[in-house]
Amino acid sequence: MKPSADRFLDVTHHVCPMTFVKTKLMIGKMSAGEIGEVRLNGGEPLENVPRSVVELGHQIVALNEEAGSPGVWRLLFKVSG
To answer: Pfam families per the record (predicted)?
Structure first.
């Protein structure tokens, strides 16, 4: 069972680097232990956003392609303290 997200962000209409800028702004509003979910496109956003979340010290919980939407991914991460 996947954990439910405390916050959700859809960046499928943005391109890098805005995909991570928006994700980082969301993380800044979150508390330690909260789960964030980001809906993003494959390619550059799929490479950069998860890597940048980890570089900030947070934990990836899941990264899966969205059912029924080829090329769209769901990233779940847990904010560290």
So the answer is: TusA (PF01206)
Residue-level pLDDT at 64: 97
Closest CA to 78 of 19, 6, 11: 6
How many C-beta atoms surround the C-beta of residue 39 within 10 A?
A: 16
Domain parsing of the chain, residue ranges = 8-57+66-78
Q: Name the CATH architecture for the domain at 8-57+66-78.
A: 2-Layer Sandwich (3.30)
Of the candidates 5, 16, 30, 61, the residue annotated as catalytic is 16
16 is catalytic: yes
- State the pLDDT at residue 1: 56
